Structure formats: structure tokens, C-alpha cells
Amino acid sequence: xxxxxxxxxxxxxxxxxxxxxxxxxxxxxxxxxxxxxxxxxxxxxxxxxxxxxxxxxxxxxxxxxxxxxxxxxxxxxxxxxxxxxxxxxxxxxxxxxxxxxxxxxxxxxxxxxxxxxxxxxxxxxxxxxxxxxxxxxxxxxxxxxxxxxxxxxxxxxxxxxxxxxxxxxxxxxxxxxxxxxxxxxxxxxxxxxxxxxxxxxxxxxxxxxxxxxxxxxxxxxxxxxxxxxxxxxxxxxxxxxxxxxxxxxxxxxxxxxxxxxxxxxxxxxxxxxxxxxxxxxxxxxxxxxxxxxxxxxxxxxxxxxxxxxxxxxxxxxxxxxxxxxxxxxxxxxxxxxxxxxxxxxxxxxxxxxxxxxxxxxxxxxxxxxxxxxxxxxxxxxxxxxxxx
Length: 388
Hints:
- Its EC number is 5.3.1.-, 5.3.1.14.
- It is an enzyme of class 5 (isomerase).
- By secondary structure, the chain is of the alpha/beta class.
- The chain is 45% helix and 11% strand.
- The chain is built from 14 helices and ten strands.
- The strands form two sheets. The protein has an eight-stranded parallel β-sheet with strand order 1-2-3-4-6-8-9-10.
- Helix 3 links the parallel strand 2 and strand 3.
- Helix 7 (224-234) packs parallel to helix 8 and helix 8 packs across helix 9.
- The longest helix has 21 residues, at 111-131.
- It is globular, with a radius of gyration of 21 Å.
- The relative contact order is 0.15.
């Protein structure tokens, strides 16, 4: 079996979770743009996500955001999704939009505010029981804008106490994944600003707590693949939020800004045992499609991850190890570059056809008439969008 055949054999293990909110309206900090065909309900978001999976075979689950995707009957929602060929995935909590959380949620110095935030997460766990979801993802906007505004050590202590109560509510097969972000909306300090803080907090919680790495949540020049390696080495990488950034947390299509970075990240994922159905590492998108159409944006995104994963699987690891041991810098770097510059798109098109998928999912979507249909069917009503 040659290297390409071996890589394609493993590629069937790739699964990428798509976020429900990516199908809603989004925009800049100054304007949210409306578009025809935008979902008005969580069911319509799931239907759009199912179309992505139908055409790519890469997106079998949909992440939900609470309360944006709140419904009365989650068991019925799970059944609805299954009828479309997808499952319900990660449950994302929200403690960053209510006025009460102005000075923090799980870190707040006000006990009643912390109580509300904790109870929200316990509610999310109950939703997970109904949806069959495995992961509770927590991203906090908590932090301060000015020196002296609050006791930054006390906030870490309160965060630990809050997380302990939430963690205690998890079921046996459920996990807590704690995301980090080095700034925004807090500008002096953020309570979970880096992988080290997330690692320290989740390590204290126990074996069901992990770190979520959002590829857009790093300062310019950060070696993200090093962080990926370290978290895998420590057994604490739980999930990714894939997107691209040029300046800050841009939430652009993954691989759009720096495809070589995505390639390097996927190499470390594969190298560290984070690739495959049994790896314990969930690959998810977290993007906002401000200008482009939502469904094609998600299709392009999962295809970008697939392409860079295929290229990473093409790395001649035996030759690479030999060059590394010999201290042959240029040979080792050349082996990396050879894999990255390999055009795998024709082979991937054949691979898709062999699995009953369209060779070109983007073209297939354009020809499907689905966009025209939802534009007509979804006229009127309240469109979903960021924060709704």
C-alpha cells in the first residue's frame, strides 16, 4: 500500500462538528447582516447542517448553544436531527449576554450571580442527558478592564469553586471542556486567558475535564501547534474550535488565513494520537459567515480541514524521524513541505465518489436548488442570528 492509499484509508475517520450558530445571521461589531434563507428555528439550523453532511460526509453532529437553541422537547429535537442523518453534539453554555453578568459570571464576587451562572450550566447538563451530548463547553467573557478593578486571584478561586459544582453534576460519560481566550471583551485581564490557566483549572477538576483550543484565540505569532502537542502530551486536549484569524478572534473560514498553520496543527493532532473516532479529541468549527453564504461557507470549511488532514497524513514519518535524528534540518523541513505542497484535491474527489458523495460538494450544493428553496420557504418570521 502506498502512502496516498494509507492516508485515504485513515481519512474515513475524520468527523467535524458544525455549530448551529454558523447558519444564522452575523456581521461586524457595528452591523449584523440579514440574508435570504436564514434559519428561523433551531430545526432549520439543523436542516442546513444536515445538508453539509449529506454533501461532504464530514459533519455528522451539530453543536447547540443554550439559550440560543432552547426548545421545550430536546428528545424530540434529537429525533428530528436523527431523521436528517445527523446527531446533536456539544452543548455550549452562555453567560456573556445578560446584564447580570456585566462584572463576571462564574467568577463574580456576587454570590447570587455565581449561583445563576452555575445553575445555567447544570441546566445544560440536563439538556445533554436528553440530547445524548457528550461535552459541555464553557467559554467565559469574565475579566476586568482596569488594574485594581477586582481581586484577580479571588476570581480564580471563585472560578474553581464554581467549576467544581458544575463538574460534580456531570454524568459518567459526560465531559467539561474549558475554552480560553487571551482578550475580549475584557481588556486588562481575562479570567481564562491561556491554555495554562484552562489546564490548571481542568487538572484540578479531574479526568472528565479538558481544554478546548480555539485556533483564533491566540496572540499574533503564537505557535499553536506547540500548544496542541503539549495538551495532547498531557492528556488534556478535549476539543478544537477551528477558524481563521488575521488580527484577533476573526472567526473566518478555517484555513483561509494560513493553511500551512492548519496543516501543522493537524500533523501534531495525528502525531499525538488526537485523530480518529476513539481519540477523545473533538474537532469542531466555530465561525461566523458575515459576507459569504452560510451553508457553502461551512462546506468549504470542512473540506479545508479534510484537505489539510490528508496532506498531514502524507508526511513520510519514518524519513522525517531519520532526518531529525541525523540533525538534517533541511531534509526534515523538506519532508514537511513535500507533503504540504502535494495537491490532494483530485484524489479527494475520487475518494468522495467512491463513497457515494459528490466529487465537488461546492458545485453540488450550487446545483441542488437547496438555497433557492430555503430562500422561498423561509420568507417572513424572525431570522436567527448571533445572540438569538
